[in-house]
Amino acid sequence: MNYNEETLSKLVEEIVGAKDISLVEIPCVDLYMDQVTTFFNEKLGSLKRNEEDKILTKTMINNYTKGKVLMPAKNKKYTNEHIILLTLIYNLKQTISISDINTLFDPIIDIKAPQSISVPLGDLYNDFLDIKEVQNKEFARDIDKDAKFIKEKIKEMGKEGGELLELILMILLLTNKANMQKRMAEKLIDNFLKKK
Questions:
Q1: How far apart are CA 61 and CA 74, in angstroms?
Q2: Taking CA 136 as the corner, what is the angle to CA 132 and CA 137, rounded to the nearest 5 degrees?
Q3: Entry pTM
Q4: Is 172 in contact with 153 (CB distance < 8 Å)?
Q5: Which tens digits make up the pLDDT trace of 79-90?
Q6: How buried is residue 79: exposed, middle or buried, by Cβ count under 10 Å (0-12/13-18/19+)?
Q7: More confident residue, 67 or 107
Q8: Torsion, Cα of 147, 152, 153, 156 (10° steps)
Q9: Residue 170 is part of which domain span?
Q10: How far apart, in Å, are the Cα atoms of 31 and each of 40, 83, 155?
Q11: Quick one: DSSP state of residue 46?
Q12: How many distinct structural domains can be found in the chain?
C-alpha cells in the first residue's frame, strides 16, 4: 500500500468507523467470565492490531479486580456496570496507567462496596460515546488538515522525498499529539483527582 491521500483517507475511515459497544448491546442479564471475554472479543475484535491479540482475557479481568480498578464479580457473574467499566478500562489503558485508571474511577465507584456506584454509569458511558462520535469527526478533519499542512511545508522547504517524508512527518505529528494529550490527561488526574 502506497502512502497517499486516498490510502490515508481509507485508514482514517477504518479508525473512525470502528463501532463501540452501545448500551443496548450490553446484555441485561449478568454474565460469567467466559461470556464476558467472548462478548468483548466479538464486539471489539475489529480494534485488534494483530489477529492473535486479545481484547480482554480472564487474567486481565482478575488483575483489574485485584488492583481494585473493577469491583469483584457478584456470585461469579458480571453485571452491566462491570461491562461498562471494562469498556472504559479498555479505552483508557491504551493511554494511561492502571494506577491512573484506578484514581479516575475512585469518584465513580466504591470498590469496597460493590453496590455503591456514585455516578450513573449508563449516563456517563452514553455521554462519553456521544462526545467520542463528535471527536471522531474532528479527528478525520484534523488528519486531512495535517496532511495538507505537511505537504505544503515540504513544498515550501523545497525538500525531496515525497511520500516517505510525508509519512514520517505524519507519524511524528500524530505521536506528538498523542503524547501531549496523554500528558494533559495525567496532569488532570494529578491535579484534580489524586488525594493530596
A1: 14
A2: 125
A3: 0.91
A4: no
A5: 999 999 999 999
A6: buried
A7: 67
A8: 170
A9: 5-193
A10: 12, 9, 57
A11: G
A12: 1
